[in-house]
Amino acid sequence: MLMLLSQRPAHADIWGYVDKDGIAHFSAVRLDERYELFFRGSESFSAGDNVGRSGKAVGSGANRATGVAAAPPKLLAYFDVSPNYKAVKHLLREASATHGIDYELLQALIATESGFNTQAVSPKGAVGLMQLIPPTAERYGVRASKDSTVHKKLTDPKTNIRAGSSYLSDLIAMFPGQLELAIAAYNAGEGAVQRAGNKIPNYPETKNYVKTVMQLYNHLKPPSMMTSSGGRVRMEMMGGATGRSNMVPTTVASTATPEAPPERN
Q1: Which of 33, 43, 113, 205 does the annotation list as catalytic?
Q2: pTM of structure
Q3: Most confidently modeled range among 38-47, 58-67, 105-114
């Protein structure tokens, strides 16, 4: 079951900056003047051009640190010096081994969600490293006690990563072989993906979110490092738009009529 589907390398631009508190902000598009180009890719995601992969680790891949040699130097420099990232590496390894999810996928998702800021809170109330809203966290066993609320418990890295990686694992199983849909569901809610006909919902921020996570994942662990099965899955990459979580919101014109805003888990 822990198999990967092959994917031709799909390198696209990664923009980002590190703020005064050492928190990283990443995006597939330049959201404002603070964002600098971390990496310029030679190819872009396009519908039907690429092959989806499961995000599940193969063999000892779940316990491997990261695909360091292949990642862009500026991106690596952030992960090399970030104390917030270093403090939770062991928790990512544990979650990777427990759920068979690539370490690098968890790394990319958290970098996009919170920039490894354990205290991050989104405008919609998503909390911590993996930006979980309390109702989703409660589905995965995070309960309030007389001494602590669910919100407070989600600022604990171990609790947050345990619940978030469990949720991500379930989404990957829900959309087998279509990792981009699992990531979209993590951002907008699985119901939004299903209502869109099992495609990435037409939410600008979700499209940008999926591209950002996939591009970071591709650069941290490119397809050449993976076991290939030769399968093909259509990727619904239609372009970036607005940011979310630790991304700065912006407005981008679209030729399609957007649906309602994401549910956020």
Answers
A1: 113
A2: 0.72
A3: 105-114
